[in-house]
Amino acid sequence: MSHPSGASRGEQVLQLAERLGVRFRDPRILERALVHGSYAHEEASGDLESYERLEFLGDAVLNLVVSDHLYRRFPAAREGELARMRARLVSEPTLADIARSLDLGRYILLGKGEERSGGRERASLLADVLEAVVGAVYVDAGYGVAHAVVSRWIGPLLERLEEMRGDFKGQLQEVIQRRERVVPQYRITAAEGPEHAKVFVAVVEVAGRVLGEGRGKSKKEAEQAAAADALRRLGVL
Fold first, then answer.
1. Known catalytic membership, residue 59
2. Among 131, 140, 223, 229, which one carries the catalytic annotation?
């Protein structure tokens, strides 16, 4: 593998620790988090441990930290919604994006075949290694430091998640596109009341099916209410 800035393996690991903002008491634990099974199998000694055990531990730590943040940040959210938000934050694409922001791929030790097949850029591999890195931080520095590291990564994502929760139309579009690969359509069906205090009624439809209905003082507000109604009917809210 190519070493960043011509650095030795030990220097590489310290560079990554610096990116993480963690001073490891035993950098070998972080080094182990970067060893892919393909590399471990190719080693002549045969006793090199891959990242898999640390990945197992890191997955649990990551889920706990994210759950803790969601529980405190969204006190009115029900269990099902909290679970869906957590699934989004710990999904493979999200973790792979965090790994890329750390340039994690360049630090992984891969076997020759895995290297040739582009493993260093594979989202699933990057997500796994990121979890192993969290596990390494937890083992070496404890839960408090692991919590701080993960919190730095997910802080901006939590902000966006909070914005999206108020954007029911955006949430519904994401759900429907994922499930049916179509875009929901909104239609104003009525405008009730006197001119100075009109209430608009909107419905949201998918392929001719009405998914939800809502009312509001403006067309936009009515559409948001219709989207929220649809999300409740779909079991998302």
1. yes
2. 131
pLDDT at 116: 79
| Domain co-membership, 161 together with 177 | no
Q: Which of 166, 182, 209 is the last residue of a domain?
A: 166
CB 71 within 8 A of CB 79: no
Is residue 131 among the annotated active site residues? yes
Domain that holds residue 175: 169-233
Per-residue pLDDT reduced to its tens digit, 44-55: 555 678 999 999
Return the exposure string of 33-61: e unless at least 16 CB atoms fall within 10 Å of the residue's CB, then b.
bbbbebbbebeeeeeeebbeebbebbbeb
Pick the catalytic residue from 59, 128, 140, 229. Answer: 59
Domain identity same for 154 and 203: no
109 and 207 housed in the same domain: no
**pLDDT tens, 157-181?**
998 887 767 688 988 998 899 888 8
Q: In the chain, which residues have pLDDT < 70?
A: 1-7, 44-47, 164, 166, 237
* 82 and 147 assigned to the same domain: yes
